[in-house]
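Figure 3 (text version): structure tokens given as input.
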């Protein structure tokens, strides 16, 4: 704007110097002609908000990550001793620790006055510096897990950030206990989660892993019933926009960005209902972590009657689909590290399930290796991990 004004002042000066009797109307017309000339020689380019950011890995010295999920309660309690021993005794080398949990609570006192004023902190990790010191002593690569849009705490405190029923109540999914979500269209929700992420980086975490980066399951069935803020963007672009924003904000701090995503998202077209597009999300992350638990696939997937009972076949099929889905990004140098979540729990709710133990873990890891996938994360909600597994 300043350049344009300066140019117009120069034009007016030149015109009045060459033609002192020029009328006001002539000056205005000359200015408009000049402005048009300036615009034509320096056109405004259309910018796609989802064009990938520079994918320079901010953690080039990171190890080949083989990790486990750790709740904030485990990180702060007696179970941590057992988990540290597991990593000391095996090739496992990383912990994914809840810093913003499934309820929406920030799990340690960040010292950030804006976050603490939100009253959404539940101090579960009593001494974060001590925790980070311990992880460093055991040469453990620290990853901070942040549950983004599933956030019952924030939804209750700020219904305008959430989805509201026709009767004015905040929507929940009816589970026990019920979960509420916040709205991916709301920029304040983005900024809130990025603030948490930045505090986690300050605390010493090398990577921020965002989970529940989506709308609620089945949202398309209630999208026209619930009241919530939205704009012209599709749900897919709203979610992918958050991921890009997170990458732009965290990469300069030296932190990797990873995202958890449904495993089947690699095998199907974009999940428009929940706003997850495997490729659009992957192009703006350093690591993509598909949750390819065999128990999460229904009858017929990968030619298995019960995918849960066929751990090798299921992980093999999911890995092949993941590579195929990311072929376009690989050609453009945008393919992220593939680091899936695999199953270290028994899914007793699945018809035809099998008990998971050493053999089932070994089979999943073998399938990953056969597909050139060296990194993975183990999920067990209670942090009880199977002994004797070969992680080589």
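Below: residues designed for each position.
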């Amino acid at each position: 704007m300043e350049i344009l004004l300066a140019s117009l002042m120069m034009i007016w000066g030149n015109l009045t110097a060459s033609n002192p009797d020029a009328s006001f109307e002539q000056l205005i017309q000359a200015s408009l002609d000049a402005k048009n000339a300036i615009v034509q020689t320096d056109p405004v380019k259309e910018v796609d908000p989802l064009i990938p950011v520079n994918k320079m890995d901010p953690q080039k010295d990171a190890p080949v990550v083989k990790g486990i999920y750790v709740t904030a309660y485990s990180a702060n309690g007696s179970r941590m001793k057992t988990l540290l021993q597991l990593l000391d005794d095996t090739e496992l080398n990383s912990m994914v620790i809840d810093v913003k949990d499934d309820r929406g609570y920030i799990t340690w006192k960040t010292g950030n006055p804006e976050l603490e004023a939100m009253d959404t902190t539940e101090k579960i990790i009593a001494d974060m510096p001590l925790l980070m010191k311990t992880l460093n002593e055991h040469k453990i690569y620290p990853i901070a897990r942040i549950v983004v849009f599933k956030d019952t705490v924030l939804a209750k405190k700020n219904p305008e950030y959430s989805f509201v029923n026709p009767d004015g109540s905040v929507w929940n999914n009816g589970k026990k206990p019920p979960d509420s979500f916040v709205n991916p269209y709301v920029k304040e929700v983005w900024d809130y989660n990025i603030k948490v992420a930045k505090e986690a980086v300050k605390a010493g975490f090398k990577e921020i892993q965002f989970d529940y980066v989506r709308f609620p399951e089945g949202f398309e069935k209630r999208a026209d019933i619930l009241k919530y803020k939205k704009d012209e963007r599709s749900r897919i672009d709203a979610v992918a926009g958050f991921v890009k924003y997170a990458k732009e904000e965290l990469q300069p701090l030296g932190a990797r960005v990873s995202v958890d995503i449904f495993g089947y998202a690699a095998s199907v077209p974009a999940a428009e209902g929940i706003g997850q597009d495997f490729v659009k999300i992957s192009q703006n992350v350093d690591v993509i972590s598909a949750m390819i638990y065999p128990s999460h696939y229904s009858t017929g997937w990968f030619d298995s009657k019960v995918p849960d009972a066929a751990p090798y076949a299921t992980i093999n099929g999911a890995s092949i689909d993941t590579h195929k889905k990311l072929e376009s990004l690989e050609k453009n140098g945008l393919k992220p590290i593939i680091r899936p979540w695999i199953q270290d729990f028994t899914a007793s709710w699945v018809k035809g399930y099998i008990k998971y133990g050493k053999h089932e873990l070994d089979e999943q890891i073998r399938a990953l290796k056969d597909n050139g996938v060296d990194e993975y994360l183990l999920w067990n909600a209670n942090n009880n991990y199977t002994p004797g597994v070969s992680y080589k």
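Residues 1-47 have pLDDT under 50 and may be disordered.
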